[in-house]
Every structure is written in structure tokens, then in C-alpha cells.
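Customer escalation, tier 2.

The customer says the design service returned an amino acid string that "doesn't look like it belongs to this structure." They asked us to rerun it and document both sides in this ticket. The original C-alpha cells are below, unchanged.
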């Protein structure tokens, strides 16, 4: 009888371990899928905001270009939410709020470290500006997204188990 109890306990322990392992793997897989989805959504939202900002900056450049008189001091447009840099046709900087070495203006966007960069061609050229590059720091946004996923994983798993326990033991 004692050997049979040990075997039953060992079997139950093995089943529980397999259950826990598969549950954890499932949660990690779902969190990874959700993280990638949220990251794409964040990129899309940032891209739409930078498109609006780029149009605003280009309009301001156009107004500066039309109002410019020889000898005027040019105050290039800037933004509180984004940082921008302006480049001429030879890809030399005209105005920079950030510095990136080996900038590639042939791409529409790229990431470097925690920053996302978007490139916009300015046509016609206003004040010699051919390219507008907008930088958005993503570090805080991605950190908050990761934190929210971890919190959801920690608190939703026990809630789901409680819901199942209630439904299994409910008499109604």
C-alpha cells in the first residue's frame, strides 16, 4: 500500500510539473506574440505622429523660405515631442537637434539603440533642405509596454485559476 501511495504521489507530481511547464511556456509564447504586436502598433502610431510632424515642419520651412530675405537669421522649426535634423542634397547637415554618425537617408526609417528615425524627402527644396530626419526615443514607451505585459502575466494567471476553481466547484 505504501509503494502504491508513493507511485500515485509521483504520478500526480509529474502531471502537475508537466501542466505547470506547459502553462508557463504557453504564457511566455502568448506574451511574446502580444509584445511583438504591441511593438508594431507602437511603431505605427509613432509613424503616423511623425508624418503629421514632418508635414508641419515642411510647411514651416516653406513659410520661412517664402518670407526669407537676405541677411535674415533663420530659426529652423523644432518640436517638443520629436527631435529633427535637416540635410541638404549632398546629405550634409544644415540643422541638427541630434547627431548620428553614418546616417543613411535612402531608407524611410531605421532604429538605432532606443531611437526610431524617419526620413522625409523635402520637395521642392526649401532653404536648401532636401531631407528631414525625425528622431523619436522609444526607450520609455517600450519599457512601459514590457512592464505592463509582466504585470498582466503575474496578475492574470491567478485570476484565471480562481475563475476555473469557481466554475468547477459551483453548484448552480
Amino acid at each position: 500500500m505504501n509503494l502504491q501511495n508513493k507511485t500515485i504521489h509521483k504520478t500526480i507530481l509529474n502531471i502537475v510539473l508537466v501542466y505547470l511547464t506547459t502553462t508557463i511556456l504557453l504564457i511566455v509564447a502568448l506574451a511574446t506574440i502580444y509584445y511583438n504586436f504591441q511593438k508594431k502598433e507602437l511603431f505605427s502610431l509613432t509613424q503616423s505622429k511623425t508624418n503629421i510632424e514632418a508635414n508641419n515642419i515642411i510647411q514651416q520651412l516653406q513659410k520661412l523660405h517664402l518670407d526669407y530675405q537676405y541677411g535674415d537669421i533663420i530659426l529652423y522649426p523644432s518640436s517638443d515631442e520629436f527631435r529633427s535634423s535637416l540635410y541638404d542634397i549632398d546629405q550634409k547637415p544644415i540643422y541638427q537637434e541630434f547627431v548620428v554618425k553614418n546616417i543613411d537617408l535612402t531608407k524611410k526609417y531605421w532604429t538605432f539603440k532606443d531611437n526610431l528615425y524617419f526620413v522625409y524627402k523635402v520637395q521642392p527644396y526649401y532653404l536648401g533642405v532636401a531631407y528631414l530626419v525625425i528622431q523619436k526615443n522609444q526607450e520609455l514607451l517600450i519599457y512601459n509596454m514590457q512592464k505592463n505585459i509582466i504585470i498582466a502575466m503575474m496578475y492574470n494567471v491567478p485570476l484565471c485559476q480562481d475563475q476555473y476553481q469557481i466554475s468547477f466547484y459551483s453548484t448552480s
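Tier 2 assessment: The sequence is consistent with the input. The chain is about 55% helix and 20% strand. The helical segments are 2-67, 139-169. Sent an explanation to the customer and offered a walkthrough call.
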